[in-house]
Amino acid sequence: MHAVGLANQPVGRRTGDGLALTGAYIAAAVRCAPPANKPTPLERATCQPFLVRELALLGDVRVLVALGAIAWESAFRTIAALTGEDARPRPRFGHEAVARAGGFEIVGSYHPSQQNTFTRKLTPPMLASVLHRARVLAGDPEPPAC
Question: What pLDDT, in 10s, does the model give residues 66-91?
C-alpha cells in the first residue's frame, strides 16, 4: 500500500508504530480464521452484515479491492444488500478483473496469503498494480507510478 501512496510507511508491525492509511480502509469479508482458511457459507453469511454496516458508514467509497474469490463474491453480496442492486450474472473473478455494481467499481486480486506469495502466484508488483488501478478508478488524478 505504501508503494502506491495509500500508506505512510512500508510496514506496520504493531499498534502505535505510526502506520497510517491515506484514502484507504481495510475491511474483512470473514472476521475469523476458520480451519484451513476455508470459511463456510454460514461463516460468510454471519459476517456479511458487519461489512454492509462498515460500507454504509464509509459514505464516500467508490472502489472495492477484493483480495481473493471469497472477497469478490462478498463484495457483490454486500453491494446488493446495501443498494438493492444485485449484479446477475456475477462477473467472473480474476486477478486484475474489474467490474461495476451498485455505483461501485470492484477490482479483483489474488489473495495475499502465504500460499499465493510463496509460490509467486501473487507478487508485490502484481498487488501494487491492482492498488494503483483502484486509485485511478477512484479518480485520483496522479497516483504514484508502480
Answer: 999 999 999 999 999 999 988 888 89
The grid cell for 146 is: 508502480
For residue range 93-106, what is the model confidence (pLDDT) as tens digits? 999 999 999 999 99
Which cell goes with 115? 500460499
- Please state, in angstroms and as integers, the Cα–Cα distance from residue 88 to each residue in 28, 77, 122, 141, 146, following that order: 23, 11, 28, 32, 33
- Domain-located, residue 131: yes
Which residue range(s) make up the domain with 126? 2-7+42-137
SS3 percent helix, strand, coil of the chain, rounded to 5, is: 40, 10, 50
19 domain residue, yes or no:
no
CATH classification at residue 63 = 3.40.470.10
Question: Do residues 31 and 54 touch, judged by C-beta distance below 8 A?
Answer: no
Between β-strands 98-101 and 63-67, what pairing exists: parallel, antiparallel or unpaired? unpaired
Q: Kindly tell me the sign of the dihedral angle through the C-alpha atoms of 137, 30, 19, 61.
A: positive
